[in-house]
Amino acid sequence: MMPISFPSRKFLTVLCGTAAMATVAGCAKDNEIDVSGGVGITATRSACPAVAVPLHTGDVTLFDPATSRDARAIDVVAAVTNVVPQCNDTGGEKVYQLVNFDVVATRRDAGPARTITLPYYATVLQGGTAVVAKRLGNVTVTFPDGQVRGTGRAQASAYVDRAAATLPADIQERITRRRKAGDQDAAVDPLSLPEVRAAVQRASFELLVGFQLTQEQLEYNVRR
Prior knowledge:
Strands 1-2-9-6-7 form a five-stranded mixed β-sheet, with no helix packed on it. The chain has a four-stranded antiparallel β-sheet with strand order 3-4-5-8. The radius of gyration is 22 Å and the shape is elongated. 12% of the residues lie in helices and 40% in strands. A hairpin with a 5-residue loop joins strand 4 (74-88) and strand 5 (94-107). It has helices spanning 169-176, 194-202, 215-223; strands spanning 11-14, 50-54, 59-63, 74-88, 94-107, 114-126, 130-143, 149-161, 205-211. With 224 residues, the protein is mainly β.
């Protein structure tokens, strides 16, 4: 099994963001700055890791024979779907993120009942690049007799250190501090400052799930 290169990834699915900043003060809409009583940004932020399926790992194609890549040799095509996160952020030193997901597959022939096992991974990233943890699992997909469609269900989970996922107080103050018109930094977006951006990135975690592909399977997905 080959490791996935995450830094250059794009997501098929992003279900919750750990570093998303939204303005909620006054009547301001998302991504706008509230100017009532001075310019400032009120940031709502969760310690829960974002959940996503990286591009090229959300589906897998099995061939028969296994060495063929001819379209006529496609045996089973499976995809990760219905990804549902459930985060426990009620207190304590750790934040627990649980993810349930389905695997929907289609086989070439509607033959006898059949069961296949597909490996998947769950990886926790910090700051978009640092792998904090990685776990492997297997999902069982069952095809009923005479049916070409099969389904399976699996889950992944992760614990994230709350302190690491929390912005330092000085960074929070720089983001949310109200600025009056005429102040030297009134027109400066604090999130554009390198040190603020770096702190937000360090405190951002992601839980990524997808199929644990072989080198050949990943290359097939990329070329497709």
